[in-house]
Design brief:
This protein is of the alpha/beta class. The protein has a seven-stranded mixed β-sheet with strand order 2-1-7-6-4-5-3.
């Protein structure tokens, strides 16, 4: 899991990200592994402590039609309610591209990950984008 960056209206800025356990990265990687020929995305849950984002969990969302749709709005509403119930927050967004060779350090201006982060910033000060980059992975 490469920690892309936090996103604000001025552009990317590196942020410290830590994982409270292997649960969140495990869910993200398994989500991508379950759908190896499709782009996947999900929501990152946790808390911000002293400028550091602590990731405690991840909620896999979609693996086919990645867009800001009515399904995404419903999913986010349910995740927000869950967060309120258990006392954590949505702290970011994760994604893996459809093809490993499409991974890269820069997000195009119209990239869904960037649009999702901007949408999340309406409700949170700091948002992290986590990109799963399998371009250098060796399988088998």
């Amino acid at each position: 899991v490469s920690t892309q960056s936090t996103w604000d209206t001025r552009g990317p800025a590196m942020s410290e990200v830590s994982f409270a356990s292997a649960t969140a990265p495990g869910k993200m990687v398994l989500h991508a592994a379950q759908h190896p020929y499709q782009a996947v995305n999900g929501v990152v849950l946790g808390r911000v402590e002293g400028g550091q984002t602590v990731v405690t969990d991840a909620v896999p969302c979609f693996h086919q039609h990645l867009a800001l749709t009515a399904m995404a709005e419903i999913a986010f509403a349910q995740i927000e309610q869950y967060c309120k119930d258990v006392g954590i927050a949505i702290v970011g967004y994760y994604f893996a591209r459809e093809r490993a060779e499409d991974a890269g350090d820069e997000l195009p201006e119209d990239d869904l990950a960037k649009r999702m982060a901007m949408k999340m910033k309406e409700n949170a000060k700091d948002v992290v984008i986590l990109m799963l980059d399998f371009s250098t992975a060796h399988w088998g």
